[in-house]
Amino acid sequence: MKLASLAVDGERRSGVVDKTGQTVTVLPAEIGTVDDIVRGGPEALEAVRAAVPGVPLALSQVRLEAPLHRFNRDILCTGWNYWDHFEESRGKREGQDPDKRPEHPTFFTKGPGTVIGPGDDIAYDPDLSAKWDYEAEIALVIGREGRSIPEEKALDHVFGYLVANDVSQRDLQRAHGGQWLKGKSIDATMPLGPWLTTADEIDDLTGLRVQCEVDGRLLQNATSGQMAFPIPRIIAELSRGMTLRAGDVVLTGTPSGIGSAREPQIFLGDGDLVVTRVSGLGELCNRVRRTRLT
């Protein structure tokens, strides 16, 4: 299923998007939000299935919100998870280059206040940063709690997948002691959605195509099979000694083609249209808009 979040008469409701991605069926209010469904386990999914079919609405008639709004903690993120991306930035990290390729996934977090919907504007303040970069990613949502999850059982804990763009401020990322939180946590800068696709709909986790376009120019184009550490490894290592809970969101890294690694560099600016897509998961379409953040 594809679970979406939308406002109906001023109330946040959940809906099911049809397989073609053209219509959405609004679920009864008692089903709750997408956050409720994620935390509700198999019983909640059965309630959703029982409520469909209903009366579908054309997606063009509604405005989708970010699928998730209730976060347990910061968004959990994976860095340097495509080797082409790791190598393209070698020597360009302003003194923060590692000596060699990491032997384990690199993790960091970003604040939940970054999250915006699939069609919302990306906040942009040139007084805050001069280097706004795009990063197309696959995101996953944990559906079943677990700690020290074995790699072979990791996918049993995934509720579903989304598209994300980890918009980053590279100068802030470099300016605060080598950690990435500040340059990854600016308010209203991470599109997420367009809906949450349940794990059973994805047959091949290695064949998802990840793309980012800026003003019609394709700048990132890779497949999930190029990940340095596949999704089961990410979950296993992230959960080692650390409980992952239903509703936790995990980003799985961006492929090569980022703006800061290009020659000449490409950074986002006011008015740019950023399209982020992952095959089988949908597309985000967000305009960069000047916003006072300082």
Descriptive report:
The chain is of the alpha+beta class and 294 residues long. The chain folds into two domains: 2-65; 75-290, Fumarylacetoacetate hydrolase, domain 2, CATH 3.90.850.10. The protein has five helices and 19 strands. It has helices spanning 34-51, 83-88, 170-175, 181-184, 231-238; strands at 2-8, 11-17, 23-26, 56-58, 64-65, 75-79, 106-110, 115-116, 122-124, 132-133, 136-142, 158-165, 168-169, 190-198, 209-214, 217-223, 249-251, 273-278, 282-290. The strands form four sheets. Strands 1, 2, 3, 4, 5, 8, 11, 12, 14 and 17 form a ten-stranded mixed β-sheet that branches. The longest helix has 18 residues, at 34-51. The chain is globular. The mean pLDDT is 95.
